[in-house]
Design a protein that fits this description.
Layout lengths: L1 H8 L13 E3 L22 H11 L3 H8 E4 L8 E4 L10 E2 L2 E2 L7 H5 L2 E4 L3 H4 L4 E4 L13 E3 H7 L2 H15 L13 H12 L1 H9 L3 H4 L4 H9 L1 H17 L13
Antiparallel strand pairs: 1-8, 2-3, 4-5, 6-7
Helix pairs in contact: 2-3, 7-12, 8-12, 11-12
The structure holds iron/sulfur cluster (2 copies).
Length: 260
């Protein structure tokens, strides 16, 4: 868990725990001498909805995005790998230019949070809740600006809630205590399905609509229509199905004539 938190947040992390009402002064803008300095040599972990937003902005498939812009990271304490944005050989984000972020309206959730790091704990399992902390790079001049925010206001301004809503079931999976159980040992097929359901939405779409999936699983017509038309609904559906694949007790069940 600590390892995931470190990865989500980047460095250097300040040892200050913040909540939604904690205040900080900050403003980032092009006039600062540090502009875009933070867009390099940084761990940016990618969430499923980040992939959807960025690949659509770039006009490519999720498979093309994964092949060109990310690298897989194994975490010691987790049995499920995560994708991180791959920096260029100069150590810069592939989307930064002197003018700023070229995918700014669709930037990843980690970039939206910056200069706040966030930790995620499943409250009912480990007794905590979401928490936050400042990340202060020595060169960052944004902290010298007067504009004051609460973490809540910052999240709203950065449109983070929509990312949280769409990624929720996925976070429940990757932060699940069940991953720590000694008898949880996902095989290669489960890992491949996890990667597809998490990050490769265009392949998941093919998996659902161009295979026997809909003859095997009991999916009502309304759901079929919504996942056909709406990519974010398809993503949430993928995470619901993935939960059953990894942990059993599926929400999306096999048709009764197929389950025996
Ligand atoms: S270093 Fe800080 S102020 Fe400068 S561009 Fe990055 S976030 Fe903005
Ligand atoms: S995605 Fe945009 S905001 Fe995030 S590191 Fe890259 S250039 Fe900076």
């Amino acid at each position: 868990m600590e390892e995931i938190i470190k990865t989500l947040s980047g460095n250097p992390v300040q040892p200050i725990r913040m909540d939604l009402d904690s205040k900080f002064s900050f403003m980032c803008h092009k006039g600062l001498e540090c502009f875009t300095q933070c867009c390099g040599k940084i761990d940016i972990f990618i969430t499923p909805y980040d992939v959807v937003r960025i690949k659509n902005r770039l006009g490519i498939t999720s498979g093309e995005f994964l092949a060109n812009y990310v690298q897989l990271m194994e975490l010691k304490k987790s049995k499920l790998p995560l994708y991180m944005l791959k920096m260029t050989k100069e150590g810069r984000c592939p989307f930064v230019t002197e003018e700023g972020c070229t995918i700014y309206p669709d930037r990843p959730v980690v970039c939206r949070y910056y200069p706040i790091g966030f930790g995620l704990l499943k409250s009912k399992e480990v007794g905590g809740g979401d928490f936050f902390f400042p990340i202060k790079e020595h060169y960052c001049k944004g902290y010298e600006e007067d504009r004051e925010w609460t973490v809540r206001e910052w999240r709203e301004a950065q449109e983070i809630n929509i990312f949280d809503f769409i990624n929720k079931d996925w976070f429940d999976i990757v932060l699940s205590k069940k991953l720590l159980a000694p008898d949880f040992k996902p095989d290669q097929k489960s890992i491949s399905l996890y990667l597809m359901c998490s990050y490769d939405i265009d392949n998941f779409r093919k998996f659902v609509f161009e295979s026997r999936f809909l003859t095997l699983y009991d999916v009502d017509e309304e759901t079929v229509e919504s996942i056909k038309e709406d990519e974010t609904e398809l993503l949430k559906f993928a995470h619901k199905w993935l939960h059953g694949v990894l942990f059993g007790n599926p929400v999306i069940k096999l048709r009764s004539d197929r389950s025996s």
